[in-house]
Every structure is written in C-alpha cells, then in structure tokens.
Amino acid sequence: MATPRTDPLTHEVVELIGAVVARYHEEYEDAAAGHNLTGAQARLLGLLSLEPLPMRRIAERLKCEPSNVTGIVDRLEARGLVERRADPDDRRVKLAATTPEGQATARRLRASLDFAREPLAALSPADRTTLRDLLRRMLATDPAN
C-alpha cells in the first residue's frame, strides 16, 4: 500500500507543531526538576490544582494506567503536596486533592514556565483566540464542530 503524500504546507505545520511540543516538554521537565518533581508528578499536581479528581479520571486525563497514577499520588502524598479524601457525593470514591503546599507548588511551577507565555504574548488577543479555536478544532473539542 502506498504511503499517502502530504503537501509541503501540511508537512511544515506538522513539523512546527512537533517543535512546539518538544520545546514545551523540555521546559516543563526542567521546571518540574527545579521543584524536585518528575514531569509526571508536575502534570498531576497541575491537574489537581484545578479540582480534586478520582484516580480513574486522572488516568484518563493523563492518558496513563490507573496503577501509575496511584504511585504518583503516593509519592506526592508522602511530600505533603497531595492528599486523598472521600468524595462528598459518593463516600466510596476517593479523590486526590492538592494540599495548600501542593497548590503553592503548582502556582510556582506554572509561574516558572516561560516558553508558552513569552511567544504567546507576542500574539494579539485576536491571534491567540484564533490559535485556540484552531487547536480545539484539530483536537475535535470545539463544541461548534
């Protein structure tokens, strides 16, 4: 079966997206290390800083196995950054949630990520909105599609 060919513009866009992703991951890993966290721990902490979540939902969002999430939560809990608590809607379900120190660490981590902020700051609000909308369409998360 023949390999489908892409036009030069599509190829360039794919390459640019790859470069952005690689640069973001590199900076994210460096920022996480600056807070004595692995990249996975930092991503989980950032996710939980938005809202407490059950392990299954964390695994879905991080695209990993629930057993991996348990280990990461265990390590963050040992550092006092995360705690487990009962879900107020269903006491059988345990939620992982940030502690006040975990919230503070997540804020410092976000503040240390310059890569996304600096290039995006050079774009106008209209350009950032267009970029956001295009990315949502690419990921099929835009409710308008």
TrEMBL record:
Q: Does the entry feature the keyword S-adenosyl-L-methionine, yes or no? A: no
Q: What Pfam families does the annotation carry?
A: MarR_2 (PF12802)
Bilayer-spanning residue ranges: none
Keywords attached to this entry: DNA-binding, Transcription, Transcription regulation
- The organism's superkingdom is given as Bacteria
In this chain the HTH marR-type domain maps to: 10-140
State the protein's name. MarR family transcriptional regulator
